[in-house]
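$ ./design --mode recover --in tokens.txt
reading tokens...
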């Protein structure tokens, strides 16, 4: 039995992995998956890959591409979610800020440097015509840290996945002022190169198992109710999320990689573009 240490965010996107583990689907292929949740998101996952704490990550596309260019010895082996991630832009419920335009010169809470929340703050600023050099950040760790920062007004807004954050909007902790979708597929599966080199067949088998689950994910009986219960979300929110979300069983295309790198260059988040062979592995 081959052990694969895998990490991802504790969000509804990753239920397919957990169902496959609970149903013993990986074990049938001789694989033992050890899953670790990373509430801090992309920055923490990149750190864990770099430090050999995990072998595989289900991670935001732009975050892993930026970190690979910066020296993370990992490669993307497949796109996981093809549809964009919808980032909600949130303020504290009692905040004086009512519109996105009013947040221009305020401070944004981010989980850590290099995180998806930081990268998307740059994307949003560029979309709005703001000077990205003027962005100010408050590092808050997890979403609980963001709640504290916004309530204490040490930061004024926080970007996190719309539906994951919706319960905090519903209970009056946050108020959503706008959404900012990613201009590329949102989640990919990446593996440390060292692990990938010596375990290609095991990675292929792992992907075949999760792909078998995602290809028919929306057809699982009562999947909307299962998701709502397990992730503490309203049924109507999960149903809307399911309509918007499309999984993938293919790798990123060269055009998609080029799009991400162009955006990172425009935002001065990378100093050079690299060949797609540096970023992806075609198993």
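writing sequence...
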């Amino acid at each position: 039995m081959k052990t694969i240490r895998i990490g991802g965010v504790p969000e509804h996107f990753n239920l397919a992995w957990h169902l496959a583990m609970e149903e013993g689907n990986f074990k049938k292929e001789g694989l033992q998956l050890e899953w670790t949740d990373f509430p801090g998101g992309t920055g923490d996952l990149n750190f864990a890959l770099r430090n050999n704490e995990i072998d595989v990550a289900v991670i935001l596309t732009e975050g892993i591409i930026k970190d690979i260019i910066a020296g993370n010895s990992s490669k993307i082996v497949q796109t996981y979610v093809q549809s964009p991630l919808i980032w909600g832009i949130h303020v504290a419920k009692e905040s004086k800020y009512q519109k996105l335009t009013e947040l221009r010169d305020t401070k944004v809470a981010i989980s850590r440097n290099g995180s998806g929340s930081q990268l998307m703050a740059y994307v949003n600023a560029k979309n709005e015509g703001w000077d990205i050099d003027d962005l100010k950040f408050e590092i808050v760790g997890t979403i609980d840290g963001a709640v504290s920062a916004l309530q204490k007004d040490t930061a004024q807004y926080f970007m996190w996945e719309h539906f994951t954050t919706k319960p905090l909007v519903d209970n009056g902790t946050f108020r959503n002022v706008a959404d900012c979708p990613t201009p590329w597929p949102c989640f990919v599966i990446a593996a440390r190169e060292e692990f990938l080199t010596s375990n290609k067949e095991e990675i292929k088998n792992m992907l075949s198992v999760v792909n078998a689950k995602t290809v028919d994910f929306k057809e699982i009986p009562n999947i909307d109710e299962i998701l709502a219960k397990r992730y503490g979300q309203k049924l109507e929110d999960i149903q809307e999320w399911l309509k918007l979300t499309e999984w993938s069983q293919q790798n990123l295309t060269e055009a998609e990689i080029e799009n991400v790198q162009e955006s990172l260059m425009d935002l001065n988040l990378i100093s050079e573009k690299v060949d797609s062979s540096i970023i992806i592995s075609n198993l």
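exit 0
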